[in-house]
Amino acid sequence: MKFERLKKIYEKDYKLLMIIPLLLFLLACAQLSYELYKYGSFGEKDLSLKGGYFVKLSAKDQTNVDQFIVDLKSQLSERLQKDVEISKVTALGKVESIVIETEVSEEDPNSDITYINNQISDISGIASDDFLSTGLVNSSLGNSFFRQIIYAVIFSFIFMSITLFIYFRSIAPSVAIVACAFLDILCTLATFNLLGYKLSTASIAAFLMLIGYSVDTDILLTTKVLKQKASSDININIYEAIITGITMQMTTVTALVVGLVVVKSPVIQQIMTVLLIGVVYDIINTWIMNVGLIRWFFEKKYI
């Protein structure tokens, strides 16, 4: 009985259901507006994008690596009066090294680097000569990369729109697919920020991958409804698309969850986190937002 009621709401009150993704869109816009006001971009950037200095230390001699990292980060942040990020590098399940990242002055980076090295040596007990590696990331390089990625995303949406229009020969369904993909990216980025992650080269690569993940189910749905109008009942084609699409999405979710549990690399985990959030939003946006738009278009054109 409850299933029949939900089915009726899904089929008849689809315009009302579309309030859910629209509300998510407004919340995402609010969050990203706050990030833009606070950081000047749609999220806080990490060292790989905004530039800074990193030091890699061996962790093989540490009996309690996690506690060592907590103490090191706490004392180093207090002494430097700057944000300090420390990540673990693992190999075969064992922590081999840790990477310390922090900002340096653009006017006089060398003196900053010397001071940072001395503080790390003093707190960790590891001489600067024994650091595994050090490096300075130029901020202009990170900014240039970030701009190029923004251009890449813009052009990908433009060419994707052209391709969809050529295939479907109609503006409305093509716009619906692009809009849902854009909404996936927007909501994922807002959630990514709320979880405390920083934008990095790895996470941006994941957002580019997410475009493909977002579009495939939307194309599946649109093709089922508009290219296979054999059934007089649009719901039959929609439910067929849902069975195939949800199977694809849940398979992806399962693989990503397993990957997050098994893989300990921070870079891989960040990529999988972006994709996992994006696929969850894609389930909402595809099977509520895009289904609603396709129903609306279908009813106006064929009924």
Please tag this protein with its features:
Alpha-Beta Plaits, four-stranded antiparallel sheet, alpha+beta, Multidrug efflux transporter AcrB transmembrane fold, about 10% strand, 2 domains, about 300 residues
Topology:
Layout lengths: L1 H11 L1 H4 L1 H21 L7 H4 L1 E7 L6 H16 L3 E8 L2 E9 L6 H16 L8 E5 L1 H30 L2 H24 L6 H27 L6 H29 L3 H37 L1
Antiparallel strand pairs: 1-3, 1-4, 2-3
Helix pairs in contact: 3-8, 5-6, 7-8, 7-9, 8-9, 8-11, 9-10, 9-11, 10-11
CATH class term of the largest domain: Mainly Alpha
Kindly report how far apart the N and C termini lie.
29 Å
**Share of residues in strands:** 5-15%
- Label the CATH architecture of the largest domain: Up-down Bundle
What is the fourth-level CATH superfamily of the largest domain?
A: Multidrug efflux transporter AcrB transmembrane domain
Unreliable residue runs: none
Structural class: alpha+beta
Rg on CA atoms, Å: 24 Å
Secondary-structure element sequence?
HHHHEHEEHEHHHHH
Q: Please state how the strands of the largest beta sheet are arranged side by side.
A: 2-3-1-4
Number of E-type strands:
4
Quickly count the domains. 2
Overall average residue pLDDT: 83
Largest sheet entry: 4 strands, antiparallel
Alpha plus pi helix count: 11
Helix content: over 70%
CATH topology of the largest domain: Multidrug efflux transporter AcrB transmembrane fold
